[in-house]
Amino acid sequence: MRIIDSHSHIGKEYYNKREPITLDKYFINIAVPLNITDALIMPMPSPVSEAGMFLSNESGYVLRWKFNDMMQKQYISQCNPIIQRNFVNPYREVNDYYYSVVQSNHNSHIKFYFVPLLNPILDTDEYWEELIEKYKPKALKIHTVGSCSTPNDISESKVAILQHYKIPLIIHTDCKDKLIPSPWGLQDIIRAANPDIWAAFLHDNRLYGVLNHGARLSSGALNYALTSKYIYIGLGPDQYLASNSDELLLHQHEQTELWYLEYLSNQIMPDKILFDLDYDYNFSDNYGNMDYKTIDRIKRVWNGDDVDKILGKNAMALFSIK
User: Fold this and answer.
1) CA distance 277 to 216
2) ω into 137 cis (within 30 of 0)
């Protein structure tokens, strides 16, 4: 049986202090214990330079952002914090590097597929076409918070590119119950990462896409997944989300181990659900311990061919994996 992790990360993330994730670390720490056969691998949400790995300070590959008067988005290079400007194609070096890492991997026990990171605001149309032609990716990733982008930031010309190539999008969705105002405007971009907004964008533009994190159990987004052929739901990291319902739009006060997965199973068909780990954010608790029981939980909620669909068949069909 194919077990396809539809969404995990490699590299180093600016906003946490953990060690960089390598393909070998992913394979040893998570793929072997869970018998993963295929993995869609993408850069971290806010990728940072690793010991001079990326040499150019001008490309702006490492970004933070903030709102200027809550309107204009300002990006700041972490390589040189003095430089404050809008960069062009900020993730080019990151994408090129990790594409080469994935391509040069010859692990016979697992197949890796590189998913490039997009910035709808700062990337040029030409770059999107270039990376699609160069990488021939199975999917494209938009981390809404990492790139500070909303559907309104995706131009008609970029929508046309996505429609032409018919490559599914993997979308980070987000929500928070209690957002503390910050000078960075984080609360505003998290609201704009609402899964309902992105579900409507995908459906209205006839773009296939995966709403990560269970679409935060939004009733609107899950209804889109039920009725629209374009919308799929990534379920991971299920244990973390089940234990942190403040990060969901549905709050479950009497939590059980399986409540999150059981809710998804009652709302949408298994044909629209994708297994993904979101490594290394797939914690079993709030102390950073890894979760190794997600597949066991899936098998306790779904049965037979439905399990096969969620663990692999759906991803094979959506991402054209053979």
Assistant:
1) 15
2) no
Q: Are the C-beta atoms of 293 and 284 separated by less than 8 Å? A: yes
**Are 161 and 125 contacting, i.e. CB atoms less than 8 angstroms apart?**
yes
Q: Considering the entire predicted model, what is its pTM?
A: 0.90
CA–centroid distance for 265 within its chain: 21
For the record, the structure tokens of 297 come out as 């939980």
- CA–CA distances in Å: residue 100 to residues 113, 130, 312: 11, 15, 25
**Of 163, 148, 158, nearest in space to 74 by CA:** 148
Q: State residue 267 phi and psi, 5-degree precision.
A: -100, -35
pLDDT (tens digit per residue) in 21-38: 899 999 999 999 999 999
Q: What is the CA radius of gyration of the chain?
A: 19
Give the residue-averaged pLDDT of 66-79: 47
Phi-psi region of 81 (alpha: psi -120 to 50; beta: other; left: phi over 0): alpha
